[in-house]
Amino acid sequence: MANHGAQADPVDVAVLGAGLCGLTAARELERAGRTVTVVDKGRGVGGRLATRRIGDARFDHGAQFFTQRGPDLAAFVQELEGAGLVREWCRGFNRSDGHPRYWVVGGMTALAKYLAADLADVRTGVEVRAVERTTDGWRLVADGAEVHAAAVLMTSPVPQTLALLDTGGVELDPGIRPPLERIDYDPAFALMVLLDGAGTVPDPGAVQFSASHPDPEHGPFSFVSDNAWKGLAAPSAITLHASAAWSTANWDRPDDELHAELLGAATRWFGDATVDESQLKRWRYAAPRTLWPERSCVGVDGATPLVLAGDAFDGPRIEGAYVSGRSGATAVLRGRTAGS
Ligand SMILES: Cc1cc2nc3c(=O)[nH]c(=O)nc-3n(C[C@H](O)[C@H](O)[C@H](O)COP(=O)(O)OP(=O)(O)OC[C@H]3O[C@@H](n4cnc5c(N)ncnc54)[C@H](O)[C@@H]3O)c2cc1C
After folding, report:
1. Which of its termini does the chain have fewer beta carbons within 10 Å around, N or C?
2. Partners of 2 in the beta sheet?
3. How are beta strands 137-142 and 145-154 bridged, if at all?
4. Per-position DSSP letters for 177-197, written without gaps between them
5. d(CA 214, CA 105)
6. How far is the CA of 311 from the centre of ligand 1 (A)?
């Protein structure tokens, strides 16, 4: 993985975003013989596949696991199992629905690193400020760097994608723009708590709450997980996600106030242990609430394709991001136009 400055030679495809969707698409495109440059503003790859180190512990603080619901993920899961990268966690945290949930050995970021390792050109720490049309394709404009490409695949959250296209003066087809503008995301807070002793999160190391969960005491949280269960920490490193409703209602409050309130609400999971350290992370675009009405990406401009993909185009989860990435790559390869 490298950080580069300005680029002279155009590539076949520029992929914006090194989350699961962008990395999956880039892999498909390279396998099809295309030259690809992936850019991401994050310090590393992964996007919402995020693992953070605090002391000696690692915390998954974005996605915690992924579910295989449909057949699309089967071959990928088989590959990841073969590489020793994923293990089945359970088939539902509160009650089984039959669909396997997988956790990633080494933390969720390891999945992104695995995909990025085989790609020719992944640039992190590069924030794209505008996406512009050129005479023969596209230009991604970042501070001190440009990427020129015949095609571009954008996997940033849709409101950010639209802002980048607006800044670059790109006008979208009036049939596409309104449904894209309707795509909205729920925010989420993640609280990470390092304990000096064992916490009380029960087997299998996580609890998932919903409106119908029998335990009314879950307070602001929708998911509580002890990273020790994944071998990421000892004795306990707990990630607590605030629900979409709570995060939305409290989004504008200051960090220190939220941090204190969430920490206070989390004590039931600490047992006799004491808090060594805790951190709060804001995810403004945690999960798309309104999706693109068709599956699994949208392509614009057949000659020099612009394709938009990401979990908002197939489902608010890792499986959706993966399916959309593959579909986005196919759309680029076909130069598919909107609605085709
Ligand atoms: C708190 C939380 C918990 C979750 N839990 C689960 C779970 O347990 N199971 C599950 O299946 N899913 C879960 N999800 C959802 C899952 O993480 C996402 O669906 C999936 O990771 C989305 O992948 P993506 O590639 O579409 O988007 P992202 O991972 O968001 O990738 C988009 C990338 O674009 C980059 N980017 C954006 N703008 C720019 C720019 N201007 N310049 C350069 N780069 C840019 C971003 O840095 C980012 O890396 C969770 C998400 C969150 C936040």
Report:
1. C
2. 123
3. antiparallel
4. HHHHHT--EEEEEEEEEEESS
5. 31
6. 8
What angle in degrees, to the nearest 10, is found between the helix axes of 20-31 and 109-117? 20
Q: Which tens digits make up the pLDDT trace of 204-239?
A: 999 998 766 656 667 899 999 999 999 999 999 999
The alpha carbon of 157 and the centre of ligand 1 are apart by a number of angstroms equal to 8
Q: What is the C-alpha to C-alpha distance for residues 73 and 71, in angstroms, rounded to an integer?
A: 6
Q: How far is CA 310 from the centre of its chain?
A: 9
Q: Report the CATH superfamily, name and number, of domain 11-48+112-182+291-334.
A: FAD/NAD(P)-binding domain (3.50.50.60)
Rounded distance from Cα 181 to ligand 1 centre (Å): 19
Distance of CA 237 to the CA centre of its chain: 21
Assess whether the C-beta atom of 335 lies below 6 angstroms from ligand 1. Answer: no
How would residue 339 be classed by pLDDT, with cut points 50, 70 and 90?
very low
Amino acid found at 181: E
Q: What is the pTM of this model?
A: 0.95
What is the DSSP code string of 238-275? EEEEEPHHHHHHHTTS-HHHHHHHHHHHTGGGTTT--E
Give the distance (Å) from ligand 1 centre to CA of residue 301: 26
Q: Where along the chain do its domains lie?
A: 11-48+112-182+291-334, 51-108+184-288
Any idea which residue has 């979208």 for tokens?
Answer: 172
Look at residues 326, 298, 302, 252 and name the one whose alpha carbon lies nearest to residue 70: 326
Index of the ligand 1 atom closest to the CA of residue 155: 32
Other beta carbons less than 10 A from residue 86's beta carbon: 24
User: Degrees (nearest 5) of the Cα angle 143, 146, 152?
Assistant: 120
51-108+184-288 CATH fold: Polyamine Oxidase; Chain A, domain 2 (3.90.660)
Q: Which atom of ligand 1 is nearest to the CA of 42?
A: 47
| Residue 21 pLDDT class (50, 70, 90 cuts) | very high
